[in-house]
Amino acid sequence: MANTDVLEQAGLADYLEDDGGRHQVEMQGLLDALTTKEVKGSMADEGSLENIMVTQSRTGVIYATTRAAQFGFKGAGDPAWGNLGQGAPETSGIPNQPDRSEVKVTLDAESNEYGDTNGDKDMRKAVAEYYNHWFRKGKNSQYTWQNVAITSGGRSGLCRLMASLTNVNCGYFLPDYTAYEQLLGCFTGISPIPIEHDKGVTTSAAHLQSRIRVHGLGAFLLSNPTNPTGNIVEGKNLDDWVKVAREESCLFMMDEFYSHYMYEDKLPGDTRPFHTFSSAEFVDDVNKDPICIINGLTKNWRLPGWRVCWVVGPKHCIDALSAVGSFMDGGAPHPLQRAAVPFLAPNFVKEDALALQAHFRQKRDYMLQELAALGIKVRKPEATFYLWADVSDLPEPLNNGVIFFEHCIRHNVICVPGIFFDVNPFHRRRFSKSPYLNHLRMSYGPAWPNLKMAVQGMKQLIDKAKAGTLGPLSKPEEPPSKRSRK
Predict the structure, then answer these.
(1) Quick one: which of 172, 269, 274, 189 has its CA closest to 227?
(2) Contact by Cβ (8 Å): 221, 190
(3) Fewer CB within 10 Å, N- or C-terminus of the chain?
């Protein structure tokens, strides 16, 4: 079957034409591990806007939800859809969470003014105290407000870091967070270099150090806990990683956004009242060790709409982020920073993390059981709210992650094809050879009704495939605006 026929059958041809740009459709694997790219052929004259503004790749979640919108998905919280593509936790109340009703956003003359580019001083102090309280008790070197930059979301902090790097080889692992592809491909000061794991979904310190030396890495970007696999590096293993960063003078940009979503027993000797970790625990000198930590309210505090996050690191790094932020984003919302300070109080953090872990552990265990019953292989995640699912044992054609996704959105279920996590800046590697073609990321971030709806939708889909009654991929209905143009 010709590539154009496959795209037409999947209902993708019109989508690529109308919603295109130079961002890839990670739709590899359609029938014969087909590799395609979303390319909008421009008929415009040279020098027109289409030729000077380039549409960048979409992240996996945005691609999946945009594609689902063609089949009626109305956005986050749509009760008719089981949205397992959601990259955010449920934001409604959960059992035993601490009271949030007294947190108020005050709008007065001072808070309505521009804040400092690196954030409100009280919020920066609160973040520093959070790390000192939970991870640096008894250590001579302590974080201060000058070690903290408050940013308008985690990606804003990551962008500031990337924009601050100059002439650096930057390593990253596979698989990892889909937005790293854009981060590693859009900033001219870095050359991205993928590093393979030597121990399944993780890497030994010795291997990490050897790769840093072989490739001359000056920086390394990674998520820990890992998105999408839910793996953790903590305790001595994390200490060894920090030592490697120190010995090699390699800036480790540690994305610790899921560090409260921990479901297994604490390590021996850990006296904290809930299971958590941070590379901050193993930093010797907060102003010398090349460790920058990215975290925020988005995931660990279940407040994605606040867009209040932070970068913690050596003072000279934070100063560099201020310079970049002055032209890149201007800083996080001033009133929300001030309102967020109570969320970092030790007792609130403890109660909130314990409630979060109990609630999301139940959802994780439910999804593991249900997916196993459907014949979907899943690695048990120790952290995050994601499942790295392998559909290779399902009946054809659902044993391909991309085709499984396409059928899912026609059954009101959203997940994210695994190829989006095969981070590939500049698209220099062949996606048709990706080891993640039969994988998908499924989130148990949404509320219970969405999870149960998604399981039911996938069961119906798989039952049809087993019975031989799974029909061809239907085309989405044309929007009224397009019908009117014909």
Answers:
(1) 172
(2) no
(3) C
Q: Is residue 108 part of a domain?
A: no
- Distance, in Å, from the CA atom of 385 to the CA atom of 382, rounded to the nearest integer, reads 9
Rounded CA separation 386/106 (Å): 35
How many residues are recorded in the chain? 486
442, containing H or E segment: strand 439-443
Q: How far apart are CA 426 and CA 185, in angstroms?
A: 6
| Token digits of residue 77 | 């919280």
pLDDT tens digits for range 196-237: 999 999 999 999 999 999 999 999 999 999 999 999 999 999
Residues 283 and 396 in one domain: no
Residue 370, phi then psi, degrees to nearest 5: -70, -40
Of the candidates 217, 213, 255, the residue with the CA atom closest to the CA atom of residue 233: 255
| Secondary structure E strands in 157-216 | 168-173, 190-195
Report the alpha-carbon distance of residue 261 to residue 385 in Å, rounded: 7
Task: Please report whether residue 101 resides in a domain.
Answer: no
Does pLDDT of 385 surpass 90? yes
- How many Cβ atoms sit within 10 Å of the Cβ of residue 330? 12
Cα–Cα dist 57/180, whole Å = 11
For β-strands 251-255 and 291-296, DSSP reports them as parallel
Q: pLDDT digits over 294-347, tens only?
A: 999 999 999 999 999 999 999 999 999 999 999 999 999 999 999 999 999 999
- Report if residue 112 sits inside a domain: no
pLDDT confidence of residue 152: 95
Which distant-in-sequence residues (6+ apart) come within 8 Å of 145 by Cβ? 121, 124, 125, 127, 128
CA gap 183, 191 in Å, rounded:
11
- Identify the CATH number of the domain in which residue 284 sits: 3.40.640.10
Number of domains in the chain: 2
Q: Which residue in 351, 368, 452 sits closest to 95, CA to CA? A: 351
Domain assignment present for 373: no
Output the six-digit token pair for 4.
């154009």
Q: Band of the pLDDT at 427, cuts 50, 70, 90? A: confident
